[in-house]
Amino acid sequence: MIGILGGTFDPIHYGHLRTALDVLQALGLEQVRFIPLQNPPHRGEPDLSPQQRLELVQVAVEGTPQFRADDRELIRQGKSYTVDTLLSLRKELGDVPLCLLMGSDAFRGFPSWHKPEQILELAHLVVMQRPGEHHPDNYKTRFTANPDQLRAAPGGSILFQPVTQLAISATAIREMLSQGRSPRYLLPDSVLKIIEKKSLYG
Hints:
alpha/beta, 202 residues, single chain, 7-stranded parallel β-sheet, 9 helices, Rossmann fold
């Protein structure tokens, strides 16, 4: 099984990395692919360019063999729709089970995504939950608590996975940097080193 974590990663931080590791270890994933979005349909344009954000993701995942930066969204033009990303991965990987990782807020809004039913045909959803968080009943008939059910099919199921609670915000990190304050310990030193060296977000 392969995990897919898309996002602006503006910048990537431990909130992204720790929760991805939680899921990888809990479900026995072979790898997690971090896919920076070029043109996210549900939010404004990121502060950094696609290539800058990709570079930060690449250095962030170094040293974790099961983590991989994936640049397919940055190559494709137009809006970064998840269904197109999954179709591209299917073409590359065949019928291997794919697990689309998302937070609870994203799952609440999932019915409004572009072609949600097709997304569920192409991948499983793994909804990352913080302790005590409740989930909505979207697509309740697809819920499972059994990771083996994810391994048994390329997609179609929804599993809720508890993850470490790290209330780290990329927005707050950008604000710190713009004010000349250090966001150290919120993101990898390797990422912060590039941000400081190139005066990103300054």
